[in-house]
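[SOLVED] Need 3D model of a two-part complex

Original post:
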Amino acid sequence: MVRLLERCVLHVRKGVKSPPFFIFWMIFPVILILSIFTFYPTVNGIILAFENYSVFNFSNIHFIGLKNFTKILSDPLFWTALWNTLWWIVLSVSFQFVLGFGLALLMREPFKGRGIYAGLVFYPWALSGFAIGILWSWLLNAQFGFINDILIKLHIISEGINFLSVPSWAFFSVVLVNIWYGIPFFAIMLLAALQSIPQELYESAEIDGAGIFSKFVHVTIPYVSSTILATLLLRVIWVMNFPDVIYGMTQGGPGGTTNILATYMINIVYYKNNYSLSSAVGVFVITILMIYSVLYLQFTSKHGADEF
Amino acid sequence: MKKVMILTVGIFLMGVFAFSTPKIVLNMVQVFTSPSRTEILQNIIDQFEALHPDVHINLISPPYSTAYQKIYLMLSTEQPLDIVEVGDWSLEGVVELGKLVNLQPYIATWDASKDIVPGLMKAVSVTGGIPYIIPNGVYAKALFYRPDVLAKYGITTPPKTMDELYADALKITNPKKNQYGFDFRGTGLPTNFIDIVTTSYLNDVDPNNMYKLTNGQLWFKDPRALEGLKMYVDFYKYTAPKDSINWGFDEQVNAFVSGTTPFLFQDPDTTGLLSTMLKPDQWMTAPLPIGPSGKVYPSYGFGGWGITTYSKHKDLAWEFIKFFTTPKIAAYFCKNYGALPVLKSVYDSDPYFNQGVFKAWQYMFDYPETYVFTSYPLNNKKWTEWNEYQQDTMQQVLLGNMTPQEALNKWYDFWKDAFSM
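Solution:
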């Protein structure tokens, strides 16, 4: 390896421009690591989706065509999970973005105690999603939960609300917690972008007679648009693959009503020990995300977000 | 001088390593892991190691939720493993991997085998009548209740029938006071709970198969089963918190300890937990309430130790299992963990298991015509699928998306197919 590096350095010193040999060895470690930890599991997962791989039956694993996919598509819980996933993403990401952006704007200007305030705002982001889920499941517990206790003591309600056992309440609760959990991500990213806007732009805009709203629309938004587009793209992917909060709070219940595709996938492994069936759901998720990413990137490039 | 000293120490150390006998390592995995259980098992292992100084037992304690996945993987890939714990519901699946030793030859030469509770070895011989495990504890549901909470409502004796239980639970239920009656199990595979209430309306369930009548027919289309299932749903609707649709074991125990739900069906291993959380006069057990049929159908649950086919130390592993099944160790394990002992002599020699909270089980064992211990079809290929299926359909009934009759029809179709009827 050392000899190879010496040869590479020699190539560079000799002024050889981009020798394929040099480029290959420079990117080789990255390719190797990605292959082991990302590409191989992904490809293997896709292959599993077409087999009957179950921990109960290791001795007879074979190709079964599209059976796993037809089984999944005929399960009403899959369609509930798919529909929930859509709402889970739309509600979570939109509220996280709006509230996170709002917080970033508030924290852009220096004020006394900004550091402490920022620390408190960013705190949820430092915690484990699963731990957050368990914590909130106890806070929202109908019998022993802190939130019901407070509401009863304030005489707002007379008996505990079943936050996690009535389907509509349960889905509302998990989405609310996810919004709370994800706000800091947008706040951190957008605050960094906002702080990089040159002050001169605002001064020029003021000279041209721009008001607060006009400055926001014509200076702030265009300047941070590439950050907004990147964070939205990433966040949608992350939220779709984020079962932690739901699993900690309801495990997808009651009756599968808070399942998203990611929790549905985990439950198949947990209760059925059927990795193939679970992989079939995984293939659906990958397909949806690939379609989304391509459409999103096409849309954003068409609408002038070239920098992104 | 320095060189001589280094050389001397080096030769000494080499001698120590060369002449010391390496210990034999046995790898053992438990399924029902909890911190207290791990401590109990480690204590027993320490005692065994003291008697066998050349042996070291490495206890593997995966979290319960993923224990079977780990065991399946370890066995399938023949990772170092000598002693394996398997529970009743998963025994058939583990045995099917072909990695557990048939223990019959060992049992044939084991005197203590005659001391095992009658019928238990037959019950654990799930696959082809062959014993692949030696049970380490027996579990069966009884009624746990809170006399201190019930006394506030004028209830001084535990209910003897399902109707009495329902009436008592209904009487004390008051959501405004956060007081409910029945400690309902909504998730975490509630099969036992559903079946105990539902089958109590039938007087002719086959003791060899929980889902069949003595005439060989499935009972799901029997009108009495519908009444039983309706009663189970009523327990949820009118005597249990709505949140209990999400309750597993932890939430059940939590609600019982807090007094929110003072009636609980649970296994004897709950006694170990409750004795650390409640005062002795705050909780008691009673036999399961009988249904309108005059009977109730609890089932034996059990866990046990097996030996892997690829173990290099099978005889030593068997030595440990025999040690675990001696009266002294069995009694220690059962007292501290809360299981019912598998040896007859323990019941005879240790009054602990005939009195106090254990009296309820003893009573049920004494009246087998009323408390009919019934087997589940554990060797059926669809058994593991059933537990999840029943839980899912039951939750749909509790949410009002399905009627009890529709659920029973689905269960009928499931078992008709599973039994190839």
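Edit: Chain B has a mean pLDDT of 91.
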